[in-house]
From TrEMBL:
ABC transporter domain segment(s): 5-234
An example molecular function term from Gene Ontology annotations: ATP binding
Pfam families: ABC_tran (PF00005)
Keyword Nucleotide-binding in record: yes
Similarity comment: Belongs to the ABC transporter superfamily.
CDD domains: ABC_DR_subfamily_A
Keywords for this protein: ATP-binding, Nucleotide-binding, Transport
Source superkingdom: Bacteria
UniProt-recorded name of the protein: ABC-2 type transport system ATP-binding protein
PROSITE patterns assigned: ABC_TRANSPORTER_1, ABC_TRANSPORTER_2
Amino acid sequence: MSTILSISDLSKTYDGGFTALHPLNLDIARGEIFALLGPNGAGKTTLISIICGLVNASTGRVSVDGHDSITGFRKARAQIGLVPQELATESFETVWATVSFSRGLFGKPPNPALIEKILRDLSLWDKKDNRILTLSGGMKRRVMIAKALSHEPRILFLDEPTAGVDVDLRRDMWRLVRRLKDAGVTIILTTHYIEEAEEMADRIGVINRGRLMLVEEKDALMRNLGRKQVTVTLASQLGALPARLAERGVRLGDDGRALTWIYEPARVRAGMPGLLADIAAEGLTVADIDTRRSSLEDIFVDLVKGAQ
């Protein structure tokens, strides 16, 4: 898959000496959904702002579909749609006028059929003649997405797109993102709702304190860094944990019947079969087994805590 966005040695240090972004390198593949995760102040918005030409980088370069973001700014920026965190719209304009105007800002000719399709896809068609100030926060967020899509960008940045949006609207946006991906649009998503990244992303990047800590395919990340918790309920109570189970790292519950083992499948060969073999070797009878795998949120929290 070809690269549509290439970032090389990009950094940002402000005049006061604060480094918001340490030199980083990142390539985004055409048509993928890339989720950038990080705590508040990690550098996510700074990175997006530099790519979109809103903030000047201290070092490095950005290439957008072959166009340099400095020497070919207009062509590079025309490939990008941005949905910022802030709801910045003209309150007294109608939805239709706002979205149509955004298309015109990029020198695109009027295309009422396209604007209608975008509004219908975002469940905004019945609001097209409403002034922005009359809309709910969730509807305003949809208008922001419609504006970003109005000039038919090939890359769409969604910076916390579902902040303040209810569950139904969030799911609608997930469906829209999948449709855009199917149409060949590259999606770069930052979010505090890690389930969004787990649900939709092809690759995950984790940024913390201005440093890109990790970039990996989501499935590989879950495999390599994920942990598994196995809880085995015994048929009868134990007075003490057998030595071979203790050596494995198994914990005995207060009730004397629950054996809990947390392990990393990528690093433990035998895994569950080995645990069950050890339990059988002790002459213990299993009544029930429950397993749980780490979520992406668990992995993210562990990564960020480990970097502190």
